[in-house]
Design brief:
Radius of gyration: 27 Å
Number of strands: 15
Distance between the termini: 54 Å
Mean pLDDT: 88
Largest sheet: 5 strands, antiparallel
Helix content: 40-55%
Strand content: 15-25%
Number of domains: 3
Structural class: alpha+beta
Shape: globular
Length: 537
């Protein structure tokens, strides 16, 4: 929102005075590049803010040829500056001007987030989301009727009103994709804040500068404090927090314990201290460590670098980011792995098994690490052993052949048909499939894929899975209890065979259910094959 506001002021001022094109374009491009260096989503939104502002300005200046010429020059210079800045980023990150790997990573992270991290929007978040958006859009429409192209206040100018509405609607994507309370709050923040700015800007223009601007900044500050359920933005949190007296020694409130300039409850304190101490004694300070699935805090507390190609491990999904992360692990060869077991020491994101979310990462780690110790319940330290990879092999057997399903009935399973005899020591299921969606899923989110594994004793395991829309995807399922995955890191390969599910699988079905009211229904599904895979040592 800051990027949008500054860029809008730059462009509006350019339209007013028709001078300073070069430095304004340079300033806008610097804002965009710095946003990308902060995070992928901030960069994408800032680049969108630049594009929206230029397009709206051109639309508003259709009858002013000189103004349009300045805007075309501004856009061309901004694009050139962004490209040159991107080359500079390439050089400082990789030493090569034309190594665009960072930008490819940014694009993939932003694209993957939409389908891999989508979550449901429930009441009252849905009611709040719809009602707030409707009220704010109504205020924008009324403000448009009262617009003044010559107003000294930018919030009454056509450029701001059109651009702010478009940018606000785009910012709602944050809440559309990941629709818990916190992300809905973040998604609504922009449209609420810009609406408040419009209301403040509609006051008497003859008022002094202080009366005109101070209330606007105050409105934005109050919006940040009182908008939504974010703990950091909760008024009681801000009023009670003593920001100037963070703990600098081991003095903590009763029942709390000091670790790394913070006070923790006893359970968290014991776990963090035990794991970080084990890591510090297990590897040299210059050595990196691997983390599975995503608890980087252990490496931070132990003052060890986290290996891999993606910092936020939980966003790793799809072929590109998985390969990127694996390349980082293969390059660093971390001597130690911290492995947190599902359901014991780590949470499943959106009900998805961490093995199923990143199977390629799990198999790489299983090939190169063996269990060494358990410093806390469910948290395993594993030592690198590259000899395991030399002896590692797998065997796959096809269970189901190709199928094309063009009619999907909501609320009914997709039956994949009877299975042949389940092999002895069958361990993993691999489904090779493509779920097809219409083009507009890019504005909303896909459905939830669930694999229904029926066992011979009549019980079922429902495994939530990820399938990238319109892309061939391998879905891996471990049919047994997730805790048994620990056995695959044993130094004795006989324990791997013993970890196979004890009850054969008799039937497989798929469910494609809407995540919420913003989900897009798929148009079909193509299944290339379903295999049972055994890993051998």
């Amino acid at each position: 929102m800051c990027a949008f506001s500054v860029i809008t002021i730059l462009v509006q001022r350019l339209c007013d005075v028709l001078s300073g094109v070069t430095w304004r374009a340079a300033a806008a491009s610097i804002i965009v590049i710095l946003s990308f260096l902060f995070s992928a989503d901030c960069g994408v939104y800032s680049l969108a803010a630049l594009g929206i502002t230029i397009i709206v300005a051109l639309f508003c200046s259709t009858r002013e040829p000189i103004e349009r010429k300045a805007l075309f020059k501004f856009g061309a210079l901004a694009g050139a500056f962004i490209f040159l800045a991107a080359l500079a980023v390439n050089f400082f990150m990789s030493g090569a001007l034309f190594d665009f790997r960072f930008w490819h990573d940014v694009r993939e992270v932003a694209a993957t987030y939409r389908w891999a991290m989508a979550s449901s929007m429930q009441d009252p978040a849905r009611t709040w989301f719809v009602a707030t958006t409707a009220v704010c859009v109504l205020i924008f429409l009324v403000a448009w009727l009262w617009r003044d192209p010559h107003s000294p206040y930018i919030t009454r100018r056509p450029l701001f009103l059109q651009g702010a509405l478009l940018f606000s609607v785009l910012s709602l994507q944050t809440g559309v994709i990941r629709s818990d309370w916190e992300h809905v709050t973040l998604g609504l923040f922009t449209i609420i804040s810009l609406t408040a700015a419009i209301l403040i800007g509609s006051t008497n223009e003859s008022a002094g500068r202080a009366r005109s601007y101070v209330p606007g900044y105050l409105a934005l500050a109050l919006t940040a404090i009182f908008t939504g359920p974010l703990p950091l933005l909760n008024s009681s949190t801000l009023l009670m927090a003593d920001w100037k007296h963070l703990p600098k020694d081991a003095s903590c409130p009763a029942g709390m314990y000091f670790v790394d300039q913070a006070c923790f409850k006893q359970g968290d304190f014991l776990k963090l201290r035990s794991v970080s101490s084990s890591v510090q004694s297990g590897v040299a300070g210059s050595d990196p460590i691997a983390i599975f699935p995503y608890e980087n805090i252990y490496g931070v507390l132990a003052r060890r670098r986290i290996a891999g190609g993606v910092v936020q491990n939980y966003v790793v999904a799809g072929n590109y980011l998985s390969d990127r992360h694996l390349a980082g692990l293969a390059q660093d060869k971390p001597p130690l792995l911290i492995y947190s077991m599902d359901g014991v020491a780590t949470l499943r994101l959106d009900g998805l098994s961490n093995f199923t979310r990143t199977p390629q990462i799990w198999f790489y780690l299983q090939q190169h690490y063996k269990e060494e110790s358990e410093p806390a319940p469910g948290i395993l330290l594993m030592r690198r052993d590259d000899l395991r990879a030399a002896k590692w092999s797998s065997h796959a057997m096809k269970l189901i052949g190709s199928q094309q399903i063009d009619t999907l009935q909501e609320g009914l399973p997709i039956d994949l048909g009877p299975l042949p005899r389940w092999p002895d020591h069958g361990q993993f299921l691999k489904l090779d499939l493509t779920v097809r969606y219409p083009l507009w899923w890019h504005l909303l989110k896909p459905c939830r894929l669930t694999v229904d594994v029926a066992l011979a004793d009549g019980t079922h395991k429902l495994a939530v899975a990820l399938a990238e829309p319109n892309k061939e995807t391998e879905v891996w399922i471990y049919p047994g209890e997730e805790a048994q995955l620990r056995n695959y890191f044993s130094g004795n390969s006989g324990d791997w065979r013993g970890a196979a599910p004890p009850i054969p699988i008799s039937h497989i079905a798929l469910w494609l259910d809407p995540i919420d009211w913003l989900s897009v229904k798929p148009t079909g599904i193509a299944i290339r094959d379903v295999q049972v895979v055994q890993i051998l040592g």
